C-alpha cells in the first residue's frame, strides 16, 4: 500500500499537543526551528485564546498543527458524581474551596474553534477523544488543512478513516496525559506504540504518526520502522525551557520520590497517565467515568494545588518515559533525539 506524507517537516518528529499549558507558542517556535513539527493544544481553551496562539505561531512561516477535543461521549452518572464530589470536598477545603455537586458539561467550544479554523486555516488540524463529523472534516480540507484523527485501536482507525481523514495519530499505551480512546469507559490495551502502528497499518491505508512511550531514539526508530512517517514526543518536552509546564509539575518529573506512572480517572473522569501521587492513591478506585464533568469538578482544586506547589494533589501527566525528560532548551532535546536516528 502507498501512503502519501501528511506532515511537512525536516525531521520525523512531532511535538505532541499537551493541553493545560505545556504546549506554548514558544515551545512550538523552538521545536520548529530544530526541524520538528509543532502542535498547539486547542483543548480546554476558548476560540479567542486559541486564535491568539495561532497567530503567534503563524508568523514563524512553518507548517504546524492545532489539536481539538471531540466531546461526544455519554454523560456522567449523577449519583456517582455527587458521591465523588462529596468525597473530594476534604481535599478542596485545604484551599478553602467548595466543590459543586452538580455536574457541568460543555462542548469545549468546538463549533467556535471549527469556525475559526475554517475561516483562518492552519496546515494541520487533529482531533482527539472521538470522531468529528465527516462534514467538518471536509470543511477543514476545503479550507486547505490536512486532518488527523487520534486512535488507540484498529477498530477506531477504521472508523476514523471513514470520516475522510488524511491521516491518523496512533497512540500507544505508554502515552502521558489523556488516552485518546473513543470510549472513555475503556481501559487502553497495554500495547506498545510500534506494535499498534503495525496493527493499524495492516488495517487502513493512511499515513500514520505514532505517539506514546517515546523515551529516546530507540523508541522513535521502532515506531518509524513499524511504518509511521513520524513519532510524537510529549513527555520528553515537559521540562523544556520553553514549555509552559507548571513549576510543581517540572519538579515532580525529576523527583525520585515519584516512582511510577499509572492510568487514572481520578482527576478528570477519563483515563489518563500520570505520576502516581497521593490524590490518585486516595481516589483512584472511587472516580467515576465522565469527561468533562469530573474535569470541571476538580479544575479549581488542581489549579490551587499547582499554585501552592502541592504535587500530591496535582495532575502530574507523564508518559512511561518520564525519567528521560531533561531540563534543557527544546531545540537541544530535539537535536539529541534526531542525531541518533
Automatic annotation (TrEMBL):
Record's keyword terms, sorted: Detoxification, Flavoprotein, FMN, Monooxygenase, Oxidoreductase
Catalytic activities: 3 propionate 3-nitronate + 3 O2 + H2O = 3 3-oxopropanoate + 2 nitrate + nitrite + H2O2 + 3 H(+)
Keyword Cell membrane found: no
Cofactor(s) listed: FMN
Family: Belongs to the nitronate monooxygenase family. NMO class I subfamily.
Protein name as it appears in the record: Propionate 3-nitronate monooxygenase
Entry-linked InterPro entries: Aldolase_TIM, NMO
GO term, biological process aspect, one: response to toxic substance
Amino acid at each position: 500500500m502507498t501512503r502519501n506524507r501528511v506532515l511537512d517537516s525536516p525531521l520525523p518528529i512531532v511535538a505532541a499537543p499537551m493541553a493545560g499549558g505545556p504546549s506554548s507558542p514558544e515551545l512550538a517556535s523552538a521545536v520548529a526551528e530544530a526541524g520538528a513539527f509543532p502542535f498547539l493544544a486547542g483543548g480546554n481553551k476558548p476560540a479567542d485564546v486559541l486564535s491568539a496562539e495561532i497567530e503567534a505561531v503563524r508568523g514563524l512561516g512553518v507548517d504546524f498543527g492545532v489539536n481539538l477535543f471531540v466531546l461526544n461521549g455519554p454523560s456522567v452518572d449523577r449519583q456517582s458524581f455527587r458521591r465523588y464530589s462529596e468525597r473530594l470536598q476534604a481535599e478542596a477545603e485545604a484551599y478553602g474551596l467548595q466543590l459543586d455537586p452538580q455536574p457541568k458539561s460543555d462542548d469545549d467550544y468546538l463549533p467556535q474553534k471549527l469556525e475559526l479554523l475554517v475561516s483562518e486555516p492552519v496546515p494541520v488540524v487533529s482531533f482527539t477523544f472521538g470522531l468529528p463529523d465527516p462534514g467538518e472534516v471536509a470543511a477543514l480540507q476545503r479550507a486547505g488543512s490536512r486532518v488527523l484523527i487520534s486512535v488507540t485501536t484498529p477498530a477506531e482507525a477504521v472508523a476514523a478513516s471513514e470520516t475522510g481523514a488524511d491521516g491518523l495519530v496512533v497512540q500507544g499505551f505508554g502515552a502521558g496525559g489523556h488516552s485518546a480512546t473513543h470510549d472513555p469507559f475503556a481501559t487502553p490495551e497495554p500495547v506498545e506504540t510500534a506494535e499498534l502502528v503495525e496493527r493499524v497499518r495492516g488495517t487502513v491505508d493512511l499515513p500514520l504518526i505514532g505517539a506514546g512511550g517515546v523515551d529516546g531514539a530507540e523508541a522513535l526508530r521502532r515506531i518509524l520502522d513499524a511504518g509511521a512517517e513520524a513519532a510524537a514526543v510529549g513527555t520528553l518536552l515537559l521540562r523544556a525551557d520553553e514549555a509552559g509546564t507548571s513549576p510543581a509539575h517540572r519538579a515532580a518529573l525529576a523527583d525520585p520520590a515519584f516512582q511510577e506512572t499509572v492510568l487514572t480517572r481520578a482527576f478528570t473522569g477519563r483515563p489518563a497517565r500520570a505520576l502516581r501521587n497521593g490524590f490518585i492513591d486516595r481516589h483512584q478506585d472511587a472516580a467515576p467515568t465522565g469527561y468533562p464533568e469530573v474535569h470541571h469538578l476538580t479544575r479549581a482544586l488542581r489549579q490551587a494545588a499547582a499554585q501552592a506547589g502541592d504535587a500530591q494533589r496535582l495532575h502530574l501527566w507523564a508518559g512511561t518515559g518520564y525519567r528521560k525528560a531533561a531540563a534543557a532548551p527544546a531545540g537541544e532535546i530535539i537535536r539529541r533525539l534526531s542525531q541518533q536516528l
